[in-house]
Amino acid sequence: AIKGDFTLLEPALNFIAEHYKENLAVSLYAEQCKISESHFRKKFTECMGISPIDYRNELRYREAKRLYQKNYTLQEIAEKVGIPDQNYFVKVFRSVYHMTPTEYRNLSLFS
To answer: 20 by DSSP, 3-state: which?
Structure first.
């Protein structure tokens, strides 16, 4: 749901895509666009419809779903997407997709 001044955010979007595995401060994302953190947060949410952190997490879980279909273990996936605590990974996955990673894998096998 990208709308608005995408060109302003493009440097940060590219930076987040390259560094989504790292728990970086939003101020670093703002620096990529050469604007203040508060202005960045406002513009990002206006244009993307979600916060910068939610966007980073969305990238993480999109990659997690892709890796899960390749039969990586939960621990391997959690580490690869930047969430070293497997239990936390499962908790957040469930809150985002309303199912556990195992339920997701089983659903994927039959669809």
So the answer is: coil
State both tokens at 35.
């604007």
CA 31, CA 37: separation in Å to the nearest integer? 8
19-to-1, 4, 39, 65, 98 alpha-carbon distances in Å? 21, 24, 21, 18, 26
Helix (H, G, I), strand (E, B) or coil at 99: coil
Contact 107, 99 (CB under 8 A): yes
Q: For residue 12, what is the enclosing H or E element?
A: helix 6-19
| Whole-angstrom distance, CA of residue 38 vs CA of residue 61 | 26
Nearest to 61 by CA among 23, 11, 20, 28: 20
Show the tokens assigned to 6.
Answer: 């995408």
pTM: 0.84
Phi and psi at 56, nearest 5°, equal -60, -45
pLDDT digits (tens, 9 = 90+) for 64-87: 989 988 889 999 999 999 998 999
Distance CA 110, CA 21 (A): 30
